[in-house]
């Protein structure tokens, strides 16, 4: 034990894993058929997190910028791919990937960089102990909003394509013909973070704050970081969804302001 | 004047056609022959070949929305996006009355209108921004004969007062005889003029 921190030992974790094993045993006995999935997921989380732990240990030790950037790019790529995987109507190949990656870049990378340089002011600014968890939290949260906003926009435009065409036939500009749908998609993308902010502290204790308190920070210090994160995530999600809406709704129409979902979707 | 110059859509020979001010031409043909696609090409809603002029303005020189404000298409089934009728357009009182409505209709919920009512309201919405060319795709398909006659006289009146032009698609030959000066048929991949 150092400065009051209780460190977990291997037997501690094995004790917790017994709970999962017991659940698997009971599930199998009752024929509920979740055993296989649970085993795979539990193994995945163990291996993935151990690997990340090892990688972060070495990155934190070296603090070399190229290595940090490389890790961040991997995180961005995976997040962009996850956004595409959540879409009901699939966007065309590289273009769809480009839209999600660019929107994540705007929403997470730039905001993280701003927070590191202007707010946290770590020395150097890319100090991985701050940069990587911060980026991870922003990516994880903005990814949700962006995926929801994108799905809503494309899905609604597809369902209401004859309404959009009707508005075009009456001489509306393409941006006007899609306005209500875009507004709706913006709302859909922002709901999770608005809910999170409204419920924070009452319904749920946010994960990062909980973590900091467990790690020995004073609650008030942890709360300050949590508020910072909430604001960053809100701004990031908002800019990210706006970027998606702009890029995709432009692509839905051709130069003659015709609705061309065939150019957008696979 | 509306002028179609070598207007080309798939499966139909290039179309050349001129419609003078105040004139309405009739268009018939089997389902799937290309009537609707022809109207969509004139309104520039689909990719197509050739050129269209409305009062000397070329389609390709105007932006999409400018063109469609001049050359407006009334689709066979009208679509609505707000809850209430009046949120969609500013109606002219006299036109409202000519189709048997009064101002109260603007407060109606679109969802509660019958298909015939929606179609009549769609005609009013179309005329509200004063297009030079009306492309009417079966405008009175869901109406009883009384309301169909009201729509016919409203359109006639509009064309006369504004010196506007119209292409009227219908499956009813007697209606086309009433409203159109010349009638055409799309058949065998060609636009053919019908002798009256």
CATH topology of chain B: Rossmann fold
Give the tally of structural domains of chain B.
1
Do you know the CATH architecture of chain B? Answer: 3-Layer(aba) Sandwich
Average residue pLDDT of chain A: 91
Number of strands of chain B: 10
Please give the structural blueprint.
The complex is a heterodimer of chains A (266) and B (196).
Chain A: H1 10-29, H2 35-62, H3 65-85, H4 93-120, H5 128-159, H6 161-169, H7 174-177, H8 179-199, H9 207-214, H10 219-251, H11 261-264
Chain B: E1 2-9, E2 12-19, E3 24-29, H1 35-42, E4 49-54, E5 57-58, H2 64-70, E6 71-74, H3 93-98, H4 115-128, E7 133-137, H5 145-162, E8 165-169, H6 173-179, E9 182-187, E10 190-194
Parallel strand pairs in B: 3-8, 3-9, 6-7, 7-8
Antiparallel strand pairs in B: 1-2, 1-4, 4-5, 9-10
Give an overview of the whole structure.
Chain A is globular and about 70 Å long. In chain A, helix 4 crosses helix 5. Chain A has two domains: 1-62, no CATH class; 64-264, no CATH class. Chain A has eleven helices and no strands. The longest helix of chain A is centred in the C-terminal third of the chain and has 33 residues, at 219-251. Chain A has helices at 10-29, 35-62, 65-85, 93-120, 128-159, 161-169, 174-177, 179-199, 207-214, 219-251, 261-264. With 196 residues, chain B is an alpha/beta fold. Chain B has a single domain (2-194), classed as Rossmann fold, CATH 3.40.50.300. In chain B, strands 6-7-8-3-9-10 form a six-stranded mixed β-sheet, with helices on both faces. A four-stranded antiparallel β-sheet of chain B has the order 2-1-4-5. In chain B, strand 7, helix 5 (145-162) and strand 8 (165-169) form a beta-alpha-beta unit. Chain A binds chain B through residues 160, 162-163, 165-174, 180, 255-258, and chain B through 43-47, 63-66, 68-70, 72-75, 77-81, 125-126, 129, 131.
